[in-house]
């Protein structure tokens, strides 16, 4: 598939084939996709832990399960736990990473002159701000970019995923032996889909002009209908959900996989507390 079609076919899958294991080499390809993502200053703050259901403890699986993660947590054979490593921004390491960019001829015009400028001008400023930078929007942007590339590699390899999070995600640190400098971000369920790849159709999104602007906020970016048609031909824009047969498919899947007719995961049955309201399945589409 071409890139645009991979993006268009991507869905947040919640029904996986629990009996079909995911090949280790495909997970490695996902991790390599993440490793080669763009990263501010090449600090490489993105970290991941691969969790195989068949070897994970019951306590870990229970801790990983977000409120809106019932179907995927019951059926996915593997999960990737993504987190931001704040220590990657420590000043000496950060400056060393910048030096590395210079020596790789990715930054500056000449090696020695650029390194000297970094030491004189950037080190003093970064020394005072690296801790804030380690939890800044840019840091989490890089985590998101890495996950996005891993997700596209997964779909290119025939796998499907669902991204999740929870307000309780930081509580599993001890179970995973995370360092104190770790900031948990997301859990990604990975596997082969039990549902059709369409998953009922492409999730409806707001019009482009409501999300993107030109020159100033509020001035809509006006799309060209000819480009929309080009993207439909390229399969980036596809038929919207719900497709006519989706209800029947969901009913079949629930029976075939022996799942209960519910949305919330077992540890969170009943009315959610206020703290639980914004949590859960983060994929959505």
Give your account of this protein's structure.
Helices cover about 40% and strands about 10% of the residues. It has about 280 residues and is α+β, with helices and mostly antiparallel strands. It has a five-stranded antiparallel sheet. The radius of gyration is 21 Å and the shape is globular.
CATH level-two architecture of the domain at 12-200: 3-Layer(aba) Sandwich
Mean pLDDT: 92
CATH class of the domain at 12-200: Alpha Beta
Shape: globular
Largest sheet geometry: 5 strands, antiparallel
> Distance between the terminal alpha carbons, to the nearest Å?
20 Å
Protein structure class? alpha+beta
Which characteristics define this entry?
globular, alpha+beta, five-stranded antiparallel beta sheet, 12% strand
Brief write-up:
With about 280 residues, this protein is of the alpha+beta class.
Helices and strands, with pairings:
Blueprint: H1 3-9, H2 24-35, E1 46-52, H3 58-64, H4 70-75, E2 78-85, H5 91-103, H6 111-133, H7 137-156, E3 160-165, H8 173-176, E4 182-191, H9 208-211, H10 225-233, H11 246-256, E5 280-281
Antiparallel strand pairs: 1-2, 2-4, 3-4, 3-5
């Amino acid at each position: 598939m071409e890139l645009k079609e991979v993006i268009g076919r991507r869905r947040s899958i919640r029904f996986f084939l629990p009996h079909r294991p995911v090949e280790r080499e495909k997970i490695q390809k996902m991790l390599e996709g993440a490793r080669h993502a763009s990263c501010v200053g090449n600090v490489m703050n993105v970290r991941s832990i691969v969790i195989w259901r068949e070897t994970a403890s019951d306590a870990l699986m229970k801790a990983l399960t977000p409120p809106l993660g019932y179907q995927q947590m019951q059926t996915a054979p593997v999960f990737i736990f993504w987190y931001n490593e704040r220590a990657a921004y420590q000043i000496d390491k950060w400056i060393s990473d910048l030096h590395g960019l210079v020596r790789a001829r990715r930054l500056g015009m000449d090696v020695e002159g650029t390194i000297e400028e970094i030491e004189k001008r950037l080190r003093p400023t970064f020394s005072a701000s690296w801790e804030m930078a380690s939890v800044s929007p840019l840091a989490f942007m890089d985590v998101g970019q890495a996950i996005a590339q891993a997700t596209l590699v997964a779909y290119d390899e025939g796998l499907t995923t669902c991204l999740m999070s929870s307000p309780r995600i930081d509580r599993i640190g001890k179970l995973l032996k995370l360092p104190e400098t770790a900031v948990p971000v997301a859990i990604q369920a990975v596997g082969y889909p039990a549902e059709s790849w369409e998953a009922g159709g492409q999730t409806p999104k707001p019009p482009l002009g409501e999300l993107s602007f030109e020159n100033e906020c509020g001035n809509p970016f006006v799309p060209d209908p000819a480009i929309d048609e080009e993207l439909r031909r390229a399969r980036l824009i596809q038929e919207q959900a719900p497709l006519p047969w989706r209800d029947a498919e969901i009913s079949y899947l629930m029976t075939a996989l022996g799942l209960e007719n519910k949305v919330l995961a077992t540890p969170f049955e009943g009315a959610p507390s206020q703290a639980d309201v914004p949590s859960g399945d983060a994929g959505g589409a």
